[in-house]
Amino acid sequence: MNEHRISLVVLVICCVALSAVAQQQGHQLSAAEKERILDGQFKVVSTTEGMPANVKQSFSEITRESSFALANPGQKYQVTDVVVDRKLPLRRLVFAGVKDDKWFVHYERGGRGHGYYVLVFTVDPHGDAHFVWGGSGPYGAKNLEQLRKMVATGQFSDGENYYW
């Protein structure tokens, strides 16, 4: 009897933990949602200095970094798995954008699985940034229009959470 109760408690705890992780990680978007997620007049941001602290904090949380670490375009970062300089970040900004309460960050990550990523956040009325959606792909976009097309056509997969 006690074994069954313990098993049930462990099962409930695991389900609650998985539910919390799933909520933090966002969700997969339908094709129609992907076509619209980057709609509107976004202001393109080309440096990390142009990103607010709340978005940087949420970015750090979703990428599992203890503090914000994202190189600016053209700056050095850890391109491969071979650690050249431990001070270099693992990721480098391609560009970001803001429209009203929505932010996206398009970046590349080095390593064996070098790839490109898009993370979308919304900022609530209290100023907290919340992760909405993320996708990964083998190629980066050169501009916002290309990024929109790539997301809309499924070139950024949201099937796995490879942001970290």
Largest sheet: 5 strands, antiparallel
Distance between the termini: 41 Å
Low-confidence stretches: 4-24
Provide the spatial order of strands within the biggest beta sheet. Answer: 1-2-3-4-5
SSE series = HHEHEEEEH
Instruction: Tell me the overall shape.
Output: globular
Q: Work out the helicity level.
A: 25-40%
Residue share in β-strands: 15-25%
Secondary structure: number of strands: 5
Helix vs. strand class: alpha+beta
> Radius of gyration over alpha carbons?
18 Å
Number of helices: 4
**Structural domains: how many:** 1
Mean pLDDT comes to 84
Question: Which labels suit this protein?
Answer:
single chain, 164 residues, alpha+beta, five-stranded antiparallel sheet, 4 helices, 5 strands, 29% helix, globular
